[in-house]
Amino acid sequence: MSPCFEATDLHFAYPHRPPVLAGASMTLVPGERLAITGPNGAGKSTLMQILVGLLRPQAGRVVAFGTERREEADFAEVRRRAGYVFQDPDDQLFCPTVAEDIAFGPLNIGQSRDEALRTVTRVLDQVGLTGFADRVTHKLSGGEKRLVSLASVLAMEPDVLLLDEPTNALDEETTDRMVTVLNALPQAMIVISHDAHFRRKVVTRTLRLRDGVLVDPQPTCRHAQSAE
Ligand SMILES: Nc1ncnc2c1ncn2[C@@H]1O[C@H](COP(=O)(O)OP(=O)(O)OP(=O)(O)O)[C@@H](O)[C@H]1O
């Protein structure tokens, strides 16, 4: 099965700043839910933005859905197929009502008003917010905003989800709700998360970003192997 994403030897520095990525490599295959952890400022969001072409690395390769991506036009297709849920829902939601926020993308790609409204109902059901369509977005709780952000991304039927800190500032109950929603989705995912409880419940593999490279935080037990 060909990987959804394959990043090789990425190097990246913001202008006049020390390097953030210094040879980071990772692969995401269909069905996988990969967590990226690492200290604050390690470059996790930077890496995710490189994967969808919002930032360009100074060196390294990004292959998405079987094709190497270099130009803006290549990444426009990647962004259609890889739904990015931002760390801050206020960066994602900008319409007065939940229905308008969720319908924005589907209307933009040519769905009729009726189709878009059916999409709104479907994705709100999917995230457990049935009946929220006419709610005023800026009056929602932080947890509800986060779920609406996810719904607005699901409305575009992405092949892959990229989630930046999906449980940040959520209480235990809403975190459990996010866990249930994500576990019911078929999409492969890359999830930036500091939340070990969440990672245990959702992800299938974890990589840690440290000093610009991605490493397996729990490499197969070498002691056990060498003792054999
Ligand atoms: N636009 C920018 N210009 C200059 N430096 C930036 C910019 N964006 C991020 N940085 C810096 O790059 C480094 C990596 O940032 P990034 O947001 O990718 O880290 P992160 O691992 O996602 O952090 P956190 O866990 O705190 O969200 C940080 O030192 C940050 O201050």
From TrEMBL:
<dbReference type="InterPro" id="IPR015856">
    <property type="entry name" value="ABC_transpr_CbiO/EcfA_su"/>
</dbReference>
<dbReference type="InterPro" id="IPR003439">
    <property type="entry name" value="ABC_transporter-like_ATP-bd"/>
</dbReference>
<dbReference type="GO" id="GO:0005524">
    <property type="term" value="F:ATP binding"/>
</dbReference>
<dbReference type="InterPro" id="IPR050095">
    <property type="entry name" value="ECF_ABC_transporter_ATP-bd"/>
</dbReference>
<dbReference type="GO" id="GO:0016887">
    <property type="term" value="F:ATP hydrolysis activity"/>
</dbReference>
<keyword id="KW-0067">ATP-binding</keyword>
<dbReference type="InterPro" id="IPR003593">
    <property type="entry name" value="AAA+_ATPase"/>
</dbReference>
<protein>
    <submittedName>
        <fullName>ABC transporter ATP-binding protein</fullName>
    </submittedName>
</protein>
<keyword id="KW-0547">Nucleotide-binding</keyword>
<comment type="similarity">
    <text>Belongs to the ABC transporter superfamily.</text>
</comment>
<dbReference type="Pfam" id="PF00005">
    <property type="entry name" value="ABC_tran"/>
</dbReference>
<dbReference type="InterPro" id="IPR017871">
    <property type="entry name" value="ABC_transporter-like_CS"/>
</dbReference>
<dbReference type="GO" id="GO:0043190">
    <property type="term" value="C:ATP-binding cassette (ABC) transporter complex"/>
</dbReference>
<keyword id="KW-0813">Transport</keyword>
<feature type="domain" description="ABC transporter">
    <location>
        <begin position="5"/>
        <end position="227"/>
    </location>
</feature>
<dbReference type="GO" id="GO:0042626">
    <property type="term" value="F:ATPase-coupled transmembrane transporter activity"/>
</dbReference>
<dbReference type="InterPro" id="IPR027417">
    <property type="entry name" value="P-loop_NTPase"/>
</dbReference>
